[in-house]
UniProtKB/TrEMBL annotation:
Domain spans labelled XdhC Rossmann: 198-339
Domain XdhC- CoxI: 13-77
Protein name as it appears in the record: XdhC/CoxI family protein
Domain of life: Bacteria
Listed Pfam families: XdhC_C, XdhC_CoxI
PANTHER family the record matches: ALDEHYDE OXIDOREDUCTASE MOLYBDENUM COFACTOR ASSEMBLY PROTEIN (PTHR30388), XANTHINE DEHYDROGENASE SUBUNIT A-RELATED (PTHR30388:SF6)
Length: 370
């Protein structure tokens, strides 16, 4: 998410032509997945990335030549087993993957994919960007973009428009990106999620590293405490919003939704009790409480209503992964790591013990129904 912001800042400083590189398809193992992007300037600057650093140098050297006649898809074979052929390059990296990258001249303006995605995030709306990367020559690089409030943009037309629109609409509803066959072409369908809204209750010194780490990931931070707003702004400048509120007033002053991540860090037993009385029944995405398990269990026993099993499932107390964390910075790392795992639908275990691929394959609808 932060990468999108970095790309937009970079293009704002650019002078002269710019090439946009987008990973559109991956077979096997790859450091980056479809949707990863990099911007390149004619004078050699770049922002973003499409690999772990293996492919960027080659792209920067050749991207402007390759796009002189229009968009082009390059295939990079990183298995080290394939010979170079037309339209493909072999790198003896041993990564066991094949990566397709769409290169196109790019400039900001109405209908561009980066601007559309950024505006959707600004309005906290899910969006979909569908890009044709193989098919009729005049369609390569064409896009259809949808937003969950009904806004639609793009330059895709002709026979591909309706099948791509149907696929993009399905992705908008399901929130599942994919890359593959669609209507006689190959299409990358990206889902752009709004920045996770993270609400932190508390104003202690240990809140600052949580705000800092979440900000570095591009998350939207709101700090809430029974303190003057100006004090909160000075103490937590990295947060996007600061709310002065008593625990009894939070539901009126702080908007929460099914996407919200809520962190309770007040270090006050009465405040936590009053906050959990109001927060536990809400269908938020994640609810975490700082402090020992026994402390939270005591609070839960004292609530007016006994929490249901479903409510307890989203409650993380003590919050954070078991990293052996000591001190505010390490505890913040533990908390942010667990939130990221929950947002990604993972359990936060060791990758070496994971039997499935690190990245879940995004399967095109035509293949899912086969």
């Amino acid at each position: 998410m932060k990468e999108l912001d970095d790309l937009l800042r970079a293009c704002g400083r650019a002078s002269g032509p710019v090439v946009l590189a987008t990973v559109v398809a991956v077979s096997g193992s790859s450091y980056r997945r479809p949707g990863a992007r990099m911007l390149m300037g004619a004078d050699g600057w770049l922002a973003g990335g499409v690999s772990g650093g293996c492919l960027e140098g080659d792209l920067v050297r050749k991207a402007f030549f390759w796009t002189s006649d229009g968009p082009r898809v390059l295939r990079y074979d990183t298995t080290g087993d394939a010979a170079e052929d037309e339209g493909g390059l072999s790198f003896a990296l041993g990564c066991n993957g094949v990566v397709d990258i769409l290169l196109e001249r790019w400039e900001p303006g109405p209908g561009d994919a980066l601007g559309f995605a950024a505006e959707a995030r600004k309005q906290s709306l899910r969006a979909v960007v569908a890009t044709v990367y193989r098919g009729p020559e005049d369609a390569v690089g064409s896009r259809l973009m949808l937003r969950e409030d009904g806004v639609s943009e793009g330059n895709l037309k002709g026979a591909l428009l309706e099948p791509v629109r149907a696929a993009a609409t399905e992705a908008l509803v399901r929130g599942v990106p994919w890359s593959g066959a669609c209507g006689g072409a190959e299409v990358l369908v990206e889902v752009v999620e709004p920045a996770p809204p993270v609400v932190v209750f508390g104003s202690g010194f240990d809140v600052a590293p949580v705000v800092s780490r979440a900000q570095g990931l591009g998350w939207h931070l709101t700090v809430v405490a029974d303190r003057p707003v100006e004090l909160l702004r000075r103490r937590f400048p990295g947060a996007q919003a600061h709310v002065a509120s008593r625990a009894s007033e939070v539901l009126e002053k702080v908007p929460l939704s099914a996407r919200s991540v809520v962190l309770v860090m007040t270090h006050s037993l009465p405040q936590d009790r009053e906050l959990l009385e109001r927060l536990v029944p809400l269908p938020v995405r994640y609810l975490g409480v700082l402090g020992p398990r026994a402390r939270t269990e005591r609070i839960l026993r004292e609530l007016a209503r006994t929490p249901t099993a479903e409510q307890l499932e989203k409650l993380h107390a003590p919050m954070g992964l078991d990293l052996g964390a000591e001190g505010a910075d390490e505890i913040a790392l533990s908390i942010i790591a667990e939130v990221q795992a929950v947002l990604a639908g993972r359990d936060g275990g060791r990758l070496r013990e994971r039997q499935a691929p690190i990245h879940a394959e995004a399967i095109a609808p035509e293949r899912r129904s086969a």
